[in-house]
């Protein structure tokens, strides 16, 4: 079977699955390019409100393909990065469903999502120094923002492997799921699916913007224009009318 990014769009959620079982879903240049295209298709589909990224069991993603990595120079590295960076830059809300090992570039892919949910066999492994290479793709920036400098140092400098329960405890993952991870992601995405898409995308843009702010008043200013726009949109008027009707029993 040819390695591929399997893509399904259903019920407002796009599910992208790395399907390369022989290499435990390692990212080749071709798979990274496919992932970029799949993310772009999801963003362009007006019916899609959220994106889920996962890997065919048993792994999430074993990292960059080692042969590809061995031959890579700057252009090659950036081509490998392109797949997970497309998730990091995605305008849609994103969820990584991590059921197995997320290693190296696979760790980066998991970190690139807005939210991570994990199965019992999930584990997060930096591995860069173990291979004798420097971290790349913004890994050091992403991991420190999520778990803080001490945990990030333990994972990056000392090779600490973070399992499912520890990932939740450290804030690396949102929750541990015993059952179907993709269905759990769909359930998590339901409020996003039910929201007006333009307001949803604007809210994600604002989250990115305000994350870098240090002043409360600047955040108020950043939010007021898109909030005013949403208050004058037909979707708000329709929902307000339904809510009032429900409150009055009409």
Spatial sequence of strands, sheet with the most strands: 1-2-3-4-6-9
Order of helices and strands: EEHEHHEEHEEHEHEHHHH
Q: In terms of per-residue confidence, which ranges show pLDDT below 50 for 5 or more consecutive residues?
A: none
Query: How much helix, percentage-wise, in residues?
Result: 40-55%
Share of β-strand residues? 15-25%
Radius of gyration computed on alpha carbons: 19 Å
Name the structural class: alpha/beta
Question: Can you give the mean pLDDT?
Answer: 96
Shape: globular
Total beta-strand segments: 9
Report how far the terminal alpha carbons are from each other.
Answer: 57 Å
Number of continuous helical runs: 10
Largest sheet: 6 strands, mixed
GO molecular function, one term: enoyl-CoA hydratase activity
EC number: 4.2.1.17
Protein name: Enoyl-CoA hydratase
Family: Belongs to the enoyl-CoA hydratase/isomerase family.
Written description of the protein model:
With 250 residues, this protein is of the alpha/beta class. The protein has ten helices and nine strands. Helix 3 (74-88) runs parallel beside helix 4.
């Amino acid at each position: 079977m040819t390695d591929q990014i399997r893509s399904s769009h259903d019920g407002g959620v796009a599910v992208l699955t790395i399907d390369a079982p022989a290499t435990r879903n390692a990212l080749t240049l071709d798979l990274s390019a496919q992932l970029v295209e799949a993310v772009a298709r999801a963003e362009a589909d007006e019916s899609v409100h959220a994106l889920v990224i996962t890997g065919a069991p048993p792994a999430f993603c074993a990292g960059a393909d080692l042969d590809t990595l061995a031959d890579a120079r700057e252009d090659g590295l950036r081509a490998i990065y392109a797949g997970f960076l497309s998730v990091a830059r995605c305008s849609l809300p994103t969820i990584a469903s991590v059921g197995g090992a997320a290693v190296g570039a696979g760790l980066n892919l998991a970190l690139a999502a807005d939210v991570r949910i994990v199965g019992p066999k999930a584990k997060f492994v930096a591995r860069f120094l173990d291979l004798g290479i420097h971290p790349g793709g913004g890994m050091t920036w992403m991991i420190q923002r999520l778990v803080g400098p001490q945990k990030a140092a333990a994972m990056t400098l000392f090779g600490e492997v973070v399992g499912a329960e520890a990932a939740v405890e450290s804030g690396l993952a949102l929750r541990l799921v015993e059952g179907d991870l993709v269905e759990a992601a769909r359930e998590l995405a339901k409020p996003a699916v039910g929201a007006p898409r333009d307001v949803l995308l604007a809210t994600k843009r604002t989250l990115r913007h305000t994350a870098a702010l240090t002043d409360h008043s600047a955040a108020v200013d950043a939010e007021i224009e898109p909030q005013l726009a949403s208050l004058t949109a037909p979707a708000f008027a329709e929902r307000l009318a339904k809510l009032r009707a429900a409150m009055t029993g009409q």
